[in-house]
Specification:
0% strand, mainly alpha, 195 residues, 7 helices, elongated
């Protein structure tokens, strides 16, 4: 089997596994997680549109790499395999994150009715593991496929997410008060705090 075909198969498996995990837990949160304030819907629409614009070459790569030859970098094979390994490691990390946040997951910066502060699993170390793990996962897929478009384009939705974090954290401070402030003091935003 040709090596590019192997990378395409691995990309498809990783992509659909990662997004499948996220879709399952988000669906469960929508069904059983309680009502959600709709005030963040404009940002959700913007994020989804930006993400769609960024990932279309990824789907084109899976169907026919020749369609996106214009967006490919010539990367050493070892870089692509290292990226496969990193993406594989992110799948259980993403699952770990979702099992801990459970029904509290929200597509916007707002919280659900009955939202609980989660400080277990990866949340005991970092406040936004979804952003951390998701970013590492998507950057890894960009390197597996060799698509510079993903590396550059992913900066747009990532910038929107980073822009919305202060609003998200302000909302959590308003809801949980000193408990969330203490949590912020002992955890890092995207990476664990060095003690």
């Amino acid at each position: 089997m040709e090596q590019e075909t192997i990378f395409r198969i691995l990309t498809a498996v990783l992509l659909f596994t990662g997004f499948g995990i996220g879709s399952y837990f988000r669906h469960q949160a929508e069904r059983h997680g309680g009502r959600l304030d709709q005030s963040g819907n404009k940002v959700i629409v913007l994020l989804r549109l930006l993400s769609l614009a960024v990932v279309w070459p990824l789907f084109a790569y899976l169907l026919n790499p020749a369609w996106v030859r214009w967006a490919q970098m010539d990367l050493p094979v070892w870089v692509r395999w290292a990226a496969v390994g990193t993406a594989v490691l992110m799948v259980p990390a993403i699952y770990w994150m979702y099992t801990n946040i459970g029904r509290n997951i929200s597509p916007s910066h707002t919280t659900r009715e009955g939202h609980q502060l989660v400080t277990t699993g990866p949340y005991q170390y970092i406040r936004h593991p979804l952003y951390t793990f998701g970013t590492i996962f998507m950057l890894s897929l960009a390197l597996v496929t060799g698509l510079w478009w993903l590396l550059v384009g992913f900066g747009l939705p990532l910038a929107v997410l980073i822009w919305r974090i202060p609003r998200e954290e302000a909302n959590l401070v308003a809801r949980f008060g000193d408990e969330y402030r203490a949590y912020m003091a002992r955890t890092g935003r995207f990476l664990p705090k060095l003690r």
